[in-house]
Amino acid sequence: MALLHRAELRPTKLELLATWLPSRDWYAGVGDVTRVAGYRFDDPAGQVGIETLLVRGGDGPVHQVPLTYRGAPLDGADEWLVGTVEHSVLGRRWVYDAVGDPVYAAALADAILAGTGQAEEYFEVDGRREVRAPSMDIASDAPAGDVPTVGLVRRVVDGDPTLIVTDTVELGVIRRPGSVAAPNTATLTGAWGDVRAPLAYASRR
Predict the structure, then answer these.
(1) Would you say 50 and 107 are in contact if contact means Cβ atoms under 8 Å apart?
(2) Burial of 6 by CB count in 10 Å (0-12 exposed, 13-18 middle, 19+ buried)?
(3) φ, ψ dihedrals at 105, nearest 5°
(4) Cα angle at 3 between 79 and 122, to 5 degrees?
(5) Which NCBIfam families match (predicted)?
């Protein structure tokens, strides 16, 4: 489950992405960045926020941007740093393009290979849990099974799709859902509005 805070972010996530996204070769947006939908994964250790945003720049295509939020810098991941934000509850947060974060790689592998799905999002309101309805659905076509322990991220090939190579699993993140077909392997599919498209895929090494 993902506990959400009613908090202010400076800059906001979309302001941060409006600066960072144009630096990516796979980005094809023009104009203001707006949120289309999103989903979250759980970090079993409860230390890292894991959120994937679907965003659009102007009238451009929808892009998938997985992010991790950390309370301290991630060693060796400077090239994946999107920026920092000031969170009115949690303080300074380091925001990373999640493809370079091993916590994200493990969560994505679980979602695809074990079908763990997305985290339920909720607020604490007067001591009770207030669940926020998801803005999209995700589902895996892989039969549920054991997932090998995902160790370090050994290599990332940025592009569309972005390839993540770990000790035990190779993952692909489709940056523009619908732009490319997933290979014939375990696939995570997303649905929002009247759109249904592959988001990511995985194979054991």
Answers:
(1) yes
(2) exposed
(3) -55, -45
(4) 130
(5) CG0192_rel (NF047744)
The whole-model pTM stands at 0.91
Cα–Cα dist 68/122, whole Å: 18
Pairing of strands 121-125, 2-3: parallel
SS3 content of the chain, % helix, strand, coil (to 5): 15, 45, 40
H helix runs in the chain, sequence order: 13-20, 102-113
3-state secondary structure 65-90: EEEEEECCCCCCCHHHEEEEEEECCC
Name the amino acid, one letter, at 1. Answer: M
Distance, in Å, from the CA atom of 167 to the CA atom of 205, rounded to the nearest integer, reads 8
* Contact assessment for residue 87 and residue 4, using Cβ atoms and an 8 Å cutoff: no
Entry field: residues in the chain: 205
The edge-to-edge listing of strands for the beta sheet with 9-10 is: 9-10, 81-87, 91-97, 62-70, 49-57, 33-41
